[in-house]
Amino acid sequence: MRGTLSKLAVVLALLLGAQAASADDIEIRDARLEQTEEGLALNADFGFDFNARLEQAVTNGVPLYFVVEFELTQPRWYWFDEKTATKRLQTRLSYHALSRHFRLSTGLLQQNYASLSEALAVLRRVRGWHVMDKSVPLADTTYQAAVRMRLDLALLPKPFQVNALTSREWHLDSDWRRFTWRPASPASPAPAAPAEKRDEGPAR
Predict the structure, then answer these.
(1) How far apart are CA 19 and CA 27, in angstroms?
(2) Does residue 14 come out as left (phi exceeding 0), alpha (psi in the -120 to 50 range) or beta?
């Protein structure tokens, strides 16, 4: 009897392990900051695919909301770290049966795509996201930046929220990707060119 229970426990552990291993997670493949005339912009590349449950949900008209979160922190040895910037980018993925198009909506910006794969290709890329205004002063030091992406389950329709609490198939997120960043030093002014000697002509 004990041997049978032990075997069942091993099988159950293997099944749970396989389920956890097959869980769909978001991989952050690249994240970098760029100083622009407007301030600071983030470029990032994410890697993920939809499982059958998510693909079925969005194709049947359930909108999915993805959130990219960004933090910029200035470490301080003498006190708590200072949060220099925090930003949140929300993108809504939906399907419109009449036009048979998938749509990505970010704020007032909307774009239609003929297939889910095309929409996901755009969703996986963040380009030129303005995360900090140029009016925010930056110290000449090394900052700690962090970014992550997740499917926001709190914005699912209520019946789906209950299902998402008990099913790993609805969970799609990444860990925080942390990297150091240092603002570029202002360019030193170019040395003044020597004044040209004027030819005053022959003395009179």
Answers:
(1) 18
(2) alpha
pTM of the model: 0.77
How far apart, in whole angstroms, are the C-alpha atoms of residue 178 and residue 165? 28
DSSP string, 102-153: EEEEETTEEEEESSHHHHHHHHTEEEEEEEEETTS---SS-EEEEEEEEE-G
Gap between the terminal Cα atoms of the chain: 125
What are the residue ranges spanned by the domains of the chain? 24-181
Q: How far is CA 17 from CA 20, 22, 86, 164, 167, in A?
A: 5, 9, 35, 19, 15
Which structure tokens are listed for 148? Answer: 């992550």
| Cβ-based neighbour number of residue 138 at 10 Å | 19
Structure tokens belonging to residue 170: 């609805």
Distance CA 202, CA 1 (A): 120
**What are the tens digits of pLDDT across the range 175-197?**
999 999 999 876 444 454 454 44
The per-residue pLDDT for 186 is 60
